[in-house]
Amino acid sequence: MNREALHHWIQASRPPFFIATFIPLAAGWILAGKLGAWRPWRMLLVLLGSFMVHLATNLADDYFDHLQGTDEGLSIGGSRVIQEGKIAPRTILKVVILLYALAFGIALCTMAALGLWGLTPFVLLAWFGSFFYVAPPVRYGYRGLGELSVGINMGPVMVVGTYWVISGRVDWAPFLISIPIGLMVAVILYYQSLPDMETDLAVHKYTVAVRLGRKRAFYGLIVFWVMIYSSIIGLVLTGYLPGLRCCLC
Amino acid sequence: LTIPLLVRLLNIMTGIGDWVELDRYGKYIRILYLLNGIVILIALSC
Prior knowledge:
The complex is a heterodimer. Chain A has helices at 3-13, 19-33, 40-68, 89-114, 120-131, 146-167, 172-193, 197-202, 208-212, 214-237, 245-248. Chain A is mostly helical.
């Protein structure tokens, strides 16, 4: 792969959004680490599998939005590598399949080696949320369910899933900690949909923002952040985030 | 720590005529996520 092609793939992967995967994984790891179970090799596998799914999600989003015509014309959504002729749609689809296969392989090996078959619903939910965001026939992102699914997958599924793999057990703490994290990822998606409201409406992509309309979409952003800060304060007051208690004193 | 940045973003939103321009300010929402995320991670570590 030459340097130009590498730049195209970096553009397609949308690196600034990878932080949305790193924070929930790190939260699950730290919580498990507090039990004395750091297990860096397990964390490495979780990181690899999760980033593969995140990358596959972004590429599948580009591919299926291209098929639907959502990212064409005046739209500024997606990575735009297809619209700019940098990567062929068929190539993107092949890489998506490869990434899912590798991520499934990692998940299966991890669950088999550790006897954590209880994680199967988490793996299936993550794949479903990743692939069917814009892929037919579900395309839940077109039905205003994108924020909900992303919030669940990049909140509870990632934080609890990571904690489970690393520590080998399930607790309430990672689930509760995952609430503000999931909400924050959901608000990133929500904000990213705001500039595309008109073009999304034109292709019948009824995101939450499109359904709300411009004025209520603005207040929707405020509601998101009120929920985020309220949940963080709630976690501090209930002792799940003791390190922040000094900030409220 | 992060509320002033959020207020700034909301002010930008109310001042912009065409929301297509909001794409230029997407970094603010990611910075908000990153800062709050780091705060949560540090608080968990304590």
